[in-house]
């Protein structure tokens, strides 16, 4: 069953696909520039000791995102 949730809820080792972005303006553009567009495969690699930021594997690159930014990326888990 497919589960829809924000990217910030993804646990280390889990993978998902981007469903949509709910951010606007320049932050939306930055998220798109790093490859977070509909259908992109994302994997949670590591969380910092404090829990923020989190490292994700996005299109072959490791990208660290703050939870306030990853909260605006809606994903579907498999």
Low-confidence stretches: none
Number of separate structural domains: 1
* CATH superfamily membership: Ferrous iron transport protein A (FeoA)
Mean pLDDT across all residues, rounded? 94
Individual helix count: 2
Shape: globular
CATH class division: Mainly Beta
Q: Record the strand order, biggest sheet.
A: 1-6-2-3-4-5
CATH topology: SH3 type barrels
Topology as H/E string?
EEHEEEHE
**Category by helix and strand content:** alpha+beta
Helix content: 10-25%
Beta strand %: 35-45%
Instruction: Describe the sheet with the most strands.
Output: 6 strands, antiparallel
Q: CATH architecture, please? A: Roll
Radius of gyration, whole Å:
11 Å
What is the tally of beta strands? Answer: 6
User: How far apart lie the N and C ends?
Assistant: 7 Å
Write the layout of secondary structure elements.
Elements: E1 3-6, E2 15-21, H1 25-33, E3 41-47, E4 54-58, E5 61-65, H2 67-70, E6 73-77
Antiparallel strand pairs: 1-6, 2-3, 2-6, 3-4, 4-5
